[in-house]
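Abasic site processing protein structure dump, as promised
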Amino acid sequence: MCGRFVLAMPADAIKELFNLAVFDERLLPPRYNIAPTQPIVVIRQGFDGVEAVPVRWGFLPSWVKDTTRFPLLINARAEDIREKPAFRNAIRRRRCLVPASGFYEWQARGKGPKQPYWIAPKAGGPVAFAGIWETWIGADGSEIDTAAIITVAAEAPLDEVHHRRPAMIAPENFALWISGEDMTDAALSILTDLGAETLQATPVSRRVNRVADDDAGLIEPVSEEEEMPPAKPVQQRLL
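structure tokens r here:
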């Protein structure tokens, strides 16, 4: 899955990558610990061309009546996205791109605490996660745009950290992915064009577990020994 990610790139890099004619730089403060329910930037096809807009990370289908009783959908599995009632309409015509510098994943370590890893492109630069979006309208007429990140099975060697990863879209396929046309088969076929071999995983501090921590130090590498909990002292028996 993808439960935290980073977007800390110059606005010019985002504008150039997604060929944005207009981009509000206020949408792009450096963020090193983006978490569910927070606002994220997505790239989608608008009425006047490609646009960058803020949405809530946590997908709400338009048919949901009581949001307090609906689960938080931050990810959508590519394998069954077209069959899931929550996602099947959005995958047809409301696909989007989620700009990111990289993401975090946690590796299970037996009974001990999980080890977080910072996973980012080996070549550097931003990437585009595949996403879907929806506009939810409340009973009072209020509207909120929401989104989910699509995930695929992680390949080796990334699967040693976690069995899922975000689907990434190659730049040459941006137009296909965000087109408002119902080209579901073609769109789903490009979700694994960029594989785990383009990524590198680095162990980082468990500070990333705290959403309130949001600084560049979170992606600094640490030795795994540094992150191991201290051993409990052995109690000596008196003879």
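Residues 37 and 57 are 5 Å apart (CA to CA).
lmk if u need the other ones
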